[in-house]
């Protein structure tokens, strides 16, 4: 019955993409927010962003939705909308203050994730983007298990170039393979910094073991692209604005455009292959 409920609620979701990383602080939520904004730039597409980082929900801040409340209707919880075609759901909307700590054990976290999937009235959605916490634990197992009732196009894995990050990201890739979650590809975030004045490039996080490119070659995973450091990204997230709209010609923006296009192409191809099998 539970599987049937989830399937009924999510049957109108065309593509589902998980954003993962074994490491915290690599820019997962930033990437999820910008991916959602980038996909929603096409007004013919309906996009949903689900934040399942229960203990550190930063999506409401990044999307300019702090202080918003979730409303309940006869058809379930209503997402909070940034634009007409971009809806967001996060535990952050259920807290009385952004500074409130969520001190929950695994079963309660899992129950809320199930509620987000079963009780939110997502409606017709072209892309459901799921922002996850770091690691390979409760929340990750739950979301993969619950979404297996429908389908997942795959996971985008975010890393930074240094070995300390890559070490945990290899574990995440291993997790995906163990739970049979397709990997769309890897994004190397904070990949070099070009000084806006002198134009010299610095490696803030030196890729001592070859960075994401070498790791992807070794593990036979696609590298979707490298996003350079840009201070404007952090400023835009703090203000709850879309960096894609604020800096349309920056090198980071051009990299994001290319990555988003590759994710769209993968999802369309994946959908086409599924239809052929059916």
From TrEMBL:
Keywords: 4Fe-4S, ATP-binding, Cytoplasm, Iron, Iron-sulfur, Metal-binding, Nucleotide-binding. GO terms for cellular component: cytosol; nucleus. GO terms for molecular function: 4 iron, 4 sulfur cluster binding; ATP binding; ATP-dependent FeS chaperone activity; metal ion binding. This is NUBP1 factor. The keyword Transmembrane helix does not apply. The keyword Manganese does not apply. Its main location: cytoplasm. PANTHER family: CYTOSOLIC FE-S CLUSTER ASSEMBLY FACTOR NUBP1, NUCLEOTIDE-BINDING PROTEIN NBP35 YEAST -RELATED. CDD domains: Mrp_NBP35 (cd02037). Signal peptide: none annotated. Residues 14-185 form the AAA+ ATPase domain. HAMAP family: Mrp_NBP35. GO terms for biological process: iron-sulfur cluster assembly. Component of the cytosolic iron-sulfur (Fe/S) protein assembly (CIA) machinery. Required for maturation of extramitochondrial Fe-S proteins. The NUBP1-NUBP2 heterotetramer forms a Fe-S scaffold complex, mediating the de novo assembly of an Fe-S cluster and its transfer to target apoproteins. Implicated in the regulation of centrosome duplication. Negatively regulates cilium formation and structure. It is found in: Cytoplasm; Nucleus. InterPro entries: AAA+_ATPase (IPR003593), Mrp-like_CS (IPR000808), Mrp/NBP35_ATP-bd (IPR019591), P-loop_NTPase (IPR027417), YlxH/NBP35 (IPR033756).
